[in-house]
Design brief:
Blueprint (H helix, E strand, L loop, with lengths): L6 E5 L3 H12 L8 E6 L9 H11 L7 E6 L6 H13 L4 E6 L8 H11 L9 E2 L24 E4 H4 L2
Parallel strand pairs: 1-2, 1-4, 2-3
Antiparallel strand pairs: 4-6, 5-6
Length: about 170
């Protein structure tokens, strides 16, 4: 059995959403063997500064549920277009794969199994660059439970260093 992909979580100023997401994540059996990195974006305004601390407190409550947990507090407001790519780069500079989550997701208890199994299964398949944990509503008649589709979904996804560094 291969090692589990590290999980990068991106948060900004919604500690209650993050708390629910982390609860759903810890309901995954694989959580206790997963390394987690939480990237907390910096404030846009002075009156938002307290959110980084509130989010840190929420995250630390879950420390015992993971193999390891690291918090990265951004010194300024990066925004999603900068925070996510830079966070993914930071994790992929050490690991060969990654699972990416945002604070407002609610995950199935089988999410980590699905993502890690798919990362292992498709690792050598150059045509596969992204595993999605979500698909927009569509007609499923004739489709298998898992299938290939060109568009990427940003609601719970995973990739490999080989696909990210093209």
């Amino acid at each position: 059995y291969m090692s589990l992909a590290p999980i990068a979580i991106f948060s900004y100023k919604r500690p209650k959403h993050l708390d629910k997401m982390l609860t759903s994540l810890t309901n995954n059996k694989e959580a206790k063997e997963s390394s987690v990195f939480v990237f907390i974006d910096g404030p846009k305004k002075d009156e938002e500064k307290h959110f980084q601390e509130e989010i840190s407190k929420v995250v630390y409550k879950y420390k015992v549920f993971f193999k390891s947990l690291e918090i990265v507090k951004r010194p300024t407001n990066y925004g999603l277009p900068r925070n996510i790519p830079e966070g993914v780069e930071e994790v992929l500079s050490v690991y060969d794969r990654i699972i990416v989550l945002e604070e407002d997701l609610y995950l199935s208890p089988y999410f980590l199994k699905f993502m890690n199994d798919a990362l292992n299964f498709y690792e050598a398949e150059d045509k596969v660059m992204h595993i999605s944990g979500y698909i927009f509503p569509m007609k499923k008649k004739g489709l298998f439970d898992t299938f290939f589709i060109r568009p990427a979904s940003c609601w719970g996804w995973a990739t490999w260093k080989r696909a990210w560094s093209f």
